[in-house]
Design brief:
Number of strands of chain A: 0
Structural class of chain B: mainly alpha
Strand content of chain B: under 5%
Helix content of chain A: 25-40%
Largest sheet of chain A: none
Largest interface: A-B, 60 and 73 residues
Oligomer: heterodimer
Distance between the termini of chain B: 63 Å
Order of helices and strands of chain A: HH
Radius of gyration of chain A: 20 Å
Number of helices of chain B: 9
Strand content of chain A: under 5%
Shape of chain B: elongated
Largest sheet of chain B: none
Low-confidence stretches of chain B: 87-101
Mean pLDDT of chain A: 69
Mean pLDDT of chain B: 83
Radius of gyration of chain B: 18 Å
Number of helices of chain A: 2
Distance between the termini of chain A: 38 Å
Low-confidence stretches of chain A: 1-13, 21-26
Helix content of chain B: over 70%
Shape of chain A: elongated
Number of strands of chain B: 0
Chain lengths: ~80, ~180
Amino acid sequence: MAVEQSKKKGRRRRAALPGEDMNQSNFCEAEPFVVPESEAGMSPNLQAHIGRHLRAAFDEVAREPIPDRLLQLLKDLDRSGGK
Amino acid sequence: VQGSVSASLREALVGEMTNLRAFAVSLCGDRERADDLVQETLFKAWNHLDSFREGTNLKAWLFTILRNTYFSDRRKRRREIEDADGSYAANLSTHPEQHGHMDMQDFRAALKRLPDDQREALILVGAAGFSYEEAAEISCCAVGTIKSRVNRARNRLSEMLGLEEGRLVANNLIKSA
């Protein structure tokens, strides 16, 4: 995990997503947020430990072959152009 | 628009499928449902490819569609899901604090018990390889909120799994001895 200590950039307005009405802030929430002391980061050792398990769980699935039904869907979409 | 999907975009889309699935499984903790989510995401993405600008972050775009689908679906089915979570949490079989280590099964169970927003933030930043800024964009919240969620998620996990610095170090020493 690259701990990116961030390049500052302003929040951009992104394009509307499928099924999303940008006027409805369904998925958005109010800013901003100050991190309380109690939520401060834990020791690098523990962080790394959790990180390893997290990635292992993720990668295990990511390494699996794509299930047939999803491959079939792709073929169908390709043929019909969706809709 | 029929048949207008460029070959390169199609290829890129297929290329993101494995990551998208891993995200879905980590997010909802259920393979069957995860594949439904991926399927729905693919379908939406395919039908809205015209709103995607080639050259921008396809992975982030797909992840955003998937998590929006997940969260709106989850709101609809909240009661049902909470019941399922309850029974799953009850399956947290061992008490890892007694062993000083955790296995993947305990880890997954603990991950599933995190609040949705914390789990999402942790996966995006800790496993899927997004920066805090990208994760904030995907989750549609402030960067500070993502950081806070990630921290709370880590603390909560280590609590649930009984992780302590001293024990961890001792355990690693034993393993490496």
